[in-house]
């Protein structure tokens, strides 16, 4: 069993145990987190929905990310990741939501936001929305996206075990 499949199975088991539904809000992964979860039989008892919000307009329309946030901080930022996660939680029946926004490459990076930079947002009902980032270096586009899926699932699992 692959790392992502093991993590996804663990996330589903803990959500099921706690009676929580889960939502995803994905930009750079384009639905890969939701796919990793729904590849597993029985995931429908846990996965509520996934938002693929690749464009800024989609982030605003589907998740309620503020245009002012995008203008001030950009799509790849802690602020946007937090608003994505909070929006997914608010616009679903989920008790936990994970959001990702980043630069998978090979182009699109800058000195301030290099290729491989991904921001993660996590919203757990009853807790403050959190954001953290990872910089995946030395990976191609597929590698950044796969590492993002693994990290997102790990973040959900850690939050569920802690909270």
TrEMBL record:
It holds the Pfam family CinA. Gene3D superfamilies: CinA-like. Residues 6-159 form the CinA C-terminal domain. Coiled coil: none annotated. This is CinA domain-containing protein. It comes from Nitratireductor pacificus pht-3B.
